[in-house]
Amino acid sequence: MNGRSESPACVKLVRGFEQNRVFAHVHPYELYRNWLEVTWAFLEAANDPQGFKESLDKYSYEEGAEFARLFGVYMDAVGEMPFRDILGDLFMRLNLNAAKNGQVFTPWDVAEMMARMQFSREHFEGLVREKGVVSVVDPAVGSGALLLAFAKVVHDEMGRWGVNKLRLYGTD
Predict the structure, then answer these.
(1) Residue 154 CB-density burial (10 A; 0-12 exposed, 13-18 middle, 19+ buried)
(2) Most exposed of 8, 26, 101, 119 (fewest Cβ within 10 Å)?
(3) Residues of the chain with pLDDT under 70
(4) Cβ partners under 8 Å of residue 76, min gap 6
(5) What is the pLDDT of residues 27-71, one digit of tens each?
């Protein structure tokens, strides 16, 4: 991962994709894409149990267990580094021809700098008084680095109260 994104869990996650025994026959991009699909199906299982079943039925028991293991490692990384763009860093680290195909993720330091430039405590508090929440939209969200950075800045400046007043929306 890049610079400050190095943590034991992040390193373990990268290795889990680069040196995967179960999916050694699969290109890292396919593994990443399939893992995201299964992870999304898992997160949506309560709303769409049939979709979750169909998503996992494509894979063997061993492959399903490996997806679950990678999800656990991802969650450890999130716990070690909240608000960081772990998925974007992973994608870029795996060198999945992103730059060649025109996809480049915003570096974390740049995303955080932009968020700090946009944040104003007075403006934030005024929006909360007026509307009850502060909505932030990223129309080219990618992996969500800019939204994560803004949430981090709000947390740094206002704590959990501020984050609870945030509504983050992203589309691509």
Answers:
(1) buried
(2) 101
(3) 1-6, 95-103
(4) 9, 12
(5) 888 898 899 999 999 999 999 999 899 998 999 999 999 999 999
Look at residue 102 in the predicted model and tell me its pLDDT: 67
For the purposes of burial, counting CB atoms within 10 Å of the CB of 120, is it exposed (0-12), middle (13-18) or buried (19 or more)? exposed
CB atoms within 10 A of CB 57: 8
Which spans in 44-144 are helix H?
49-57, 61-80, 86-93, 108-118, 121-131
Provide the β-strand partners of residue 169: 137
Three-state DSSP class for residue 63: helix
The first and second tokens of residue 141, run together, are 């969200």
What are the Cα distances from residue 17, in Å, to 27, 74, 93, 120, 172?
Answer: 10, 11, 10, 39, 25
**Model pTM score:** 0.74
Which pLDDT score, from 0 to 100, does residue 98 have? 60
* Token pair of 40 as six digits: 């999304």
The rounded distance, in Å, linking the Cα atoms of 8 and 28 is 20
